[in-house]
């Protein structure tokens, strides 16, 4: 045979167009796209199917190790199986830094753990403590090893940065050509509201949302964009939850700032009312930023169609309901001292923030977006893989169906209807926010670097078959060359530490 695999007669979807052709794979990469291609050792009939680039989930928390030593129960094995089952072949998760420690001291075994992944992976380095050593030595060393994005938090006690420390991280990133990603919420505003709510005896899961209304997200987003403008450093805003935040981002973009935004699947399908589900089930929907009024989803779709939001991630951050959400113990993703209520359930501030979504991201977005006619197929590809590849330095290799690119390919049945239920899922968490959701559009085969890793829901890859994706320098995140006062603080060599 001429090729390892030939996929025949599918509708190939790229970031720009949809066309019917055959796709041939050899040696883990895409060898040819066209008609009347030679024989494959494996011949796949894709009539009636879409042929999509493998999904890239650029924001997910997998087997994360907290400052308190807690390890998230979603392991690199279960989390990556979930990814492949859902049509995602690459993801980017978070290497921790614990305050008071160097990067090297924080979870030194994290990369070894990650090597068990079945999907390809990379890391964002979380920075909680930008000491001179971290800035001058450790971040440059990381960049040289292909970890080219940093993550900062403006809330969560063990993680948050002051504005001064945030500026140092932005300056370091600009000097080295790294992308900074940011969680935008105002820590003090949340703490202040939270204290008042708890004092008033308002401790239910829904009060999580009361403590962090849209304005705390909007303020922090504006502040983050302002600081990034001062440094002339591109910025990726994570998990935009509502229209008023998207509007501020659109304004910054219109002024020419290099700022980009993602939202997450759950903000399109869930609302603050989910936090009021009975029997403490609302705890399953505690995530940050919080779920909003149902009317916000329409505003997010507008922002997506306008290009203000151009990536949809999962922010997969799984905590099982049976354990963490009923008896949280320690977690980096709560705020304030854990308080138990008379019935033994935790007050809202002690419920770990996050929900699992890596496995359902593509099918939910397809159902909500493509099957309903809100977006076309190329937009679906841009939102789920192509834009993340460009933004995070994986362009040409991932998120594209072009000869020479890695053969990460998903065969998608656009008509297949299935009801999502946790018992049929690969992830390790004991619930899914989409339990009972009727999806239309489902992945039937996932190919990762030329290997069939999922077929009709059956996982075929072995732990450790995923590869670390070292990322080189890339042009998309070059600074603009514009500083507000004509004095380029970073260019003058200031802000070194
Ligand atoms: N939000 C979550 O809901 N979970 C993890 C971290 C975050 O920012
Ligand atoms: Zn053909
Ligand atoms: Zn976040
Ligand atoms: Zn997150």
Question: Judging from the principal axes of the Cα atoms, what is the shape?
Answer: globular
Residues in β-strands, percent:
15-25%
Number of distinct helices: 12
Largest sheet: 9 strands, mixed
How would you explain this protein's 3D organization?
It is a single chain. With 497 residues, the chain is of the alpha/beta class. It is globular, with a radius of gyration of 22 Å. The longest helix has 18 residues, at 214-231. It starts with a strand and ends in a 38-residue tail after the last strand. The protein is built from twelve helices and 19 strands. The structure holds dihydropyrimidine-2,4(1H,3H)-dione (DUC) and zinc ion (3 copies). Dihydropyrimidine-2,4(1H,3H)-dione is lined by residues 61, 183, 287-288, 315, 317, 333, 353-354.
Task: Looking at this protein, list some descriptive labels.
497 residues; 22% strand; alpha/beta; 19 strands; metal-binding; binds zinc ion; 9-stranded mixed β-sheet
List the SSEs and their pairings.
Layout: E1 3-13, E2 18-26, E3 29-34, E4 40-45, E5 50-53, E6 55-57, E7 60-61, H1 76-85, E8 88-95, H2 110-114, E9 120-126, H3 132-144, E10 149-153, H4 163-176, E11 179-183, H5 187-199, H6 206-211, H7 214-231, E12 235-237, H8 243-254, E13 259-264, H9 265-269, H10 296-306, E14 311-313, E15 316-317, H11 361-370, H12 377-391, E16 409-419, E17 438-448, E18 451-455, E19 458-459
Helix pairs in contact: 3-4, 4-7, 7-8, 8-10
The structure holds dihydropyrimidine-2,4(1H,3H)-dione (DUC) and zinc ion (3 copies).
One zinc ion binds near residues 9, 22 and 35.
